[in-house]
Write a structure and sequence with these properties.
It is a single chain. The radius of gyration is 23 Å and the shape is globular. Helix 20 packs antiparallel against helix 21. It is of the alpha/beta class and 523 residues long. A 7-stranded mixed sheet has the order 2-1-3-4-5-6-7, sandwiched between helices. A 6-stranded parallel sheet has the order 8-11-12-13-14-15, with helices on both faces. Strand 12, helix 11 (311-320) and strand 13 form a beta-alpha-beta unit. It is 43% helix and 15% strand.
């Protein structure tokens, strides 16, 4: 589904229709967390869509500097001083919203639960929760009396219809994909249909200004979902809600239309494709690369899978301007990867994909996950040895397993003793967790993750002959004492070595983010 729009990915630029009766409304979008994730980028599209409906749209944003969502520096005590529900609520109220739309991740639910309560204490207005957590656990959202509506699944159609109803009648009728209260009870309808991605408006990249500048780097999403069924992944969980067909890509024409228009406006020098993976459809990728090189022509980074990744794919990406491709391997323990994570790639598949990149002189990153049930120190040692010999390895990107409500991995984690019944309740209720936190590991597991995580972050700088010495337990654990600024400096050195634009741009964004956090604190 998509309502006919005046500005579409296919390049239509018709004048906007007259506003419906009762519109526009003053809509405040609220979000907390990293910018370079699906939920934030989809807010830009929602903002553009609401503007085509003649609503006034504002964003209240907390980037979570130094929090568990921070990619590089996690300093919880400092983060707590810079960010609080009370300050966020004041910022929301200052925008004088008529409707508050909150994009909620599992890890931000507790924060927003308190924020919404504080907002409602001052102003009784409709609150609509969208995003990953309402999709996976709408019943938990609706248990909060301050949350009026929860959108389950894709939000474009439900949000437009909800706002139409609120503007005209002050209350919502039954809308597909929406949970609401009626007569003291919570009622709902399942999601119906999927959005035609090509018919969506170009994303509103002004939404996150002044926190995020599009002048250097442009973040694009050209697909939704993923065809794989990894047991831990949010895409698997969402696919179970919205049904088959969830994975689809925009047409090449729509992608190039957006990027060409954005380049004229912002003059960016880099693009990062934040899709689950860009490879897979060889004909689509070949056409995208051909047109991208001709019509956009700036370096880019993307994500791919090791399965089916060939030297031809690597050379195609390299020729189009790709400076780095990121692979999610997660572990070198093939049994854990297959039986626990439901991933069928072998280490041999990974070696072939990495060799393909090296032959094409294409740098690559590898995602590695800690906190997996059943993993051992030997798995960490094996990972370090496996990654150290890889040519053109830019970085090993270290993160932790995050448990999502209703994820298939939950049952296995309970059976293996990694999660208690109390832990499972915490997950269902929106545990404050993130890729860069480690909520559910044992103390021993946390110690090992800190030590081996530090090793993997700087691994390309470690002389190959020195690795066996470092892998002695006590010497590896010493690495966990490296201060965060020093670790960031070493990773920056790696970024210079691999010409990693993305990491350097991320570091350069800190002064801006800290400045605005301090301004909000002072205000």
């Amino acid at each position: 589904w998509v309502r006919p729009l005046p500005l579409g990915g296919g390049g239509r630029f018709d004048p906007p229709p007259p506003p419906p009766a009762g519109l526009p409304m003053n809509v405040v979008l609220a979000y907390r967390g990293r910018y370079l994730v699906r939920q934030a980028l989809e807010l830009e599209t929602l903002s553009a869509l609401l503007r085509t409906e003649n609503h006034r749209v504002h964003l209240v944003y907390d980037p979570g500097v130094f929090s568990a969502t921070d990619n590089v520096f996690q300093m919880g005590s400092l983060s707590d001083k810079l960010s609080s529900p009370e300050r966020f609520a004041r910022k929301v109220l200052a925008r004088q919203p008529e409707v508050l739309v909150v994009s909620v991740l599992p890890g931000s639910f507790a924060f927003f639960r308190e924020t919404i309560r504080l907002v409602k204490r001052q102003k009784n207005l409709p609150v609509i929760c969208v995003g990953l957590f309402p999709t996976l656990s709408p019943q938990t959202v609706m248990e909060q009396s301050s949350c009026d509506y929860a959108v389950r699944g894709e939000a474009e159609r439900p949000l437009v219809e909800l706002l139409d109803d609120l503007a005209r009648a002050g209350m919502a009728r039954s809308v597909p994909g929406v949970w609401l209260r009626r007569g003291g009870a919570v009622v709902s309808r399942p999601p119906e249909g999927l959005t035609d991605l090509d018919q969506l408006p170009f994303p509103d990249k002004s939404l996150f200004a002044p926190y995020i500048s599009q002048g250097r780097s442009y973040a694009a999403m050209v697909s939704r979902g993923c065809p794989f069924r990894c047991s831990y992944c949010e895409e698997t969980c969402v696919k179970a809600v919205v049904g088959p067909g969830y994975f689809r890509r925009k047409s090449v024409a729509a992608v190039i239309g957006e990027l060409s228009r954005a380049k004229r406006r912002y003059g960016f020098s880099e693009v990062i494709f934040k899709d689950s993976y860009l490879s897979g459809d060889s004909a689509w990728l070949a056409e995208l690369c051909r047109r991208y090189k001709q019509e956009v022509g700036v370096p880019f980074k993307c994500f791919c899978t090791v399965a089916g990744f060939t030297e031809a794919t690597a050379r195609l990406l390299k020729d189009a301007g790709c400076y780095c491709v990121e692979f999610g391997l997660q572990t070198v323990n093939e049994e854990i990867r297959k039986k626990l994570l439901c991933r069928n790639e072998t280490n041999r598949d990974a070696e072939e994909a990495f060799t393909a990149c090296a032959r094409a002189e294409l740098w690559f990153d590898v995602d590695h996950m800690f906190g997996l049930p059943g993993e051992s120190e030997e798995d960490h040692r094996a990972a370090a040895s496996f990654y150290r010999g890889l040519a053109f390895l830019n970085r090993v990107k270290v993160h932790h397993l995050v448990y999502y409500p209703n994820a298939p991995i939950l049952d296995a984690a309970r059976e293996l003793g990694a999660l208690s019944d109390e832990d499972l309740r915490a997950v269902a209720e929106g545990a404050e967790d993130d890729f860069y936190a480690d909520r559910f590991s044992s103390p021993e597991g946390r110690d090992l993750a800190r030590a081996y995580g530090a090793l993997l972050k700087i691994l390309p700088l470690v002389p190959e002959g020195a690795l066996p010495e470092l892998l002695e337990r006590k010497r590896v654990r010493f690495l966990s004492r490296i201060p965060a600024p020093a670790m960031a400096a070493l990773q920056a050195l790696l970024a210079v070595r691999g010409r990693d634009r993305r990491f350097l741009m991320y570091l350069s964004s800190y002064p801006r983010l800290i400045l605005y956090a301090l301004r909000d604190l002072a205000g």
